[in-house]
Amino acid sequence: MKTYPRPEPGDQPPLLHPPYVSSIRRAPAMPPIPLPHTLSELTGPLFGEQPIGETDNDLTRQHAGDPVGERIIVAGRVLDEDGRPIPHTLVEMWQANSAGRYSHRNDNHPAPLDPNFTGSGRTITDADGNYRFVTIKPGRYPWRNHHNAWRPAHIHFSLFGTSFITRLVTQMYFPNDPLMPFDPISQSIPDERARQRLISRFDLELTEPEWALGYRFDFVLRGCDATPFEGQA
Amino acid sequence: MSRLSALPSQTVGPFFHIGLTGNTKLGCLAGPEAKGERIRLRFRLLDGDGAPVPDGMIELWQADASGKYQHPADTQEKGPDPAFRGSGRLATDAEGTCSFETVRPGRTPDGRGGCQASHINVSVFARGLMARVCTRVYFEDDPALADDPVLALVPEDRRPTLIARPDPASPGCWSFDIRLQGERETVFFDV
């Protein structure tokens, strides 16, 4: 049976982070009530049997033509906090195109849409917890959070893992992005090492010659194996 | 073994629809053959000003009508209802609302030999929420509310924020407001 220790202080962003202006009227003010882990939390949606289309994990092949931009491979593993792989779990992602524009009706940034790029993908991890996407490196874009606000390049990811507790929606960043120190969303994470965990690593091994640069990124979800105390079943 | 740490959460932002909520069938948890009392559960997501949150996402996880979760960790000796999905996901609309079709869940174990009152587990995501927030939906007419061990952890004056109410005009329809902040702020749980 897995247990789910609570996160270490500083590892997760606070809900209220005033530099991220949208949090001011949306973050709950009352502290959350700690919930004992009952069957309701120890179970959760699995989505391991979802039908996945052939191009769902290759965002460069979802349209008739090639999307514009720098082709990249993003791959890695989904693990628990003991480093054990989580097989057959759904990984969903979405992102801006290479010009920094989302294919979304509310995105009115004056950068071109790409008719050959939707920017959403999904896959299921294999028996060893591996996942792999082929996509285009997302562009950076301005947002109206504060004067001259720009988001670093990022890909949004959504994972379910093995229980209600393990649910994670996060963003993956790229190495050496000069916008990171000015980004209130990533900087909301208090612990510097925890922040660094959201930055993918360039990987020459993953890079395909004459084709695409490789970035490695492992997802660690909550949970480790129980170590029962003596006398406990 | 040195333990890894779970990755930090980051907001879903305003554009999650392209990746997460294209499939509106995820608003229906119960197929036509599902056992139990069918209900429509309408959520309204509001910010600290009481304004609708039109770019939120609500996910549900619940047991079937017999109180069984469709998950290997549920070892209760009864089979899950094959016509029931257990999970749902919808984006909120311009009024901050979304409606799920489901059945009233059965009671589930509390891990201490007793039972919990019938409830639905809810995750809320939105632009402005750095991480999901979790709450539970209970049902107003449920006599088991008085003995529920989780509700007992909640100060009495805040418990009403966790109770869905039937819509007198539409039988089978229940409403649940999620107030992220401010007066009558919904109770959220640290899972």
Give the key terms.
heterodimer, A: 233 residues, 4-stranded antiparallel beta sheet, 3 helices, 6% helix, 25% strand, B: 191 residues, mainly beta
Map the helices and strands.
The complex is a heterodimer of chains A (233) and B (191).
Chain A lengths: L1 E2 L29 E2 L4 H4 L28 E9 L10 E5 L25 E5 L5 E7 L4 E3 L5 E3 L2 E6 L8 E6 L10 H4 L4 H5 L4 E2 L10 E4 L2 E2 L3 E2 L8
Parallel strand pairs in A: 3-12, 3-13
Antiparallel strand pairs in A: 1-14, 3-6, 4-5, 4-9, 7-8, 9-10, 11-12
Chain B lengths: L16 H4 L17 E9 L9 E6 L25 E5 L5 E7 L16 E7 L6 E7 L23 E4 L6 E7 L9 E2 L1
Parallel strand pairs in B: 1-8, 6-7
Antiparallel strand pairs in B: 1-4, 2-3, 2-5, 5-6, 7-8
Model description:
The complex is a heterodimer of chains A (233) and B (191). With 233 residues, chain A is mainly beta. Chain A has one domain: Protocatechuate 3,4-Dioxygenase, subunit A, CATH 2.60.130.10. Chain A has helices spanning 39-42, 184-187, 192-196, and strands at residues 2-3, 33-34, 71-79, 90-94, 120-124, 130-136, 141-143, 149-151, 154-159, 168-173, 201-202, 213-216, 219-220, 224-225. In chain A, strands 3, 6, 11, 12 and 13 form a 5-stranded mixed beta sheet that branches. In chain A, strands 5-4-9-10 form a 4-stranded antiparallel beta sheet, with no helix packed on it. Chain A has a two-stranded antiparallel ribbon with strand order 1-14. The model of chain A has no long low-confidence stretch (mean pLDDT 95). Chain B is built from 1 helix and 9 strands; from the N terminus they run H-E-E-E-E-E-E-E-E-E. Chain B is mainly β. Chain B has one helix spanning 17-20; strands at 38-46, 56-61, 87-91, 97-103, 120-126, 133-139, 163-166, 173-179, 189-190. Chain B is 2% helix and 28% strand.
Question: What is the CATH C-level name of chain B?
Answer: Mainly Beta
Class from secondary-structure proportions of chain A: mainly beta
Tell me the β content of chain B. 25-35%
Report the portion of residues of chain A in β strands: 15-25%
Query: SS-based structural class of chain B?
Result: mainly beta
Shape estimate of chain B? globular
CATH superfamily of chain B: Aromatic compound dioxygenase
Total separate domains of chain A? 1
Q: Mean of residue pLDDT of chain B?
A: 96
| Count, helices of chain B | 1
Write down the Rg of chain B.
17 Å
Order of helices and strands of chain B: HEEEEEEEEE
Largest sheet of chain A: 5 strands, mixed
Spatial gap, N to C terminus of chain B: 25 Å
CATH level-four homologous superfamily name of chain A: Aromatic compound dioxygenase
Low-confidence stretches of chain B: none
In N-to-C order, the SSE pattern of chain A is: EEHEEEEEEEEHHEEEE
Helix content of chain B: under 10%
Count the strands of chain B?
9
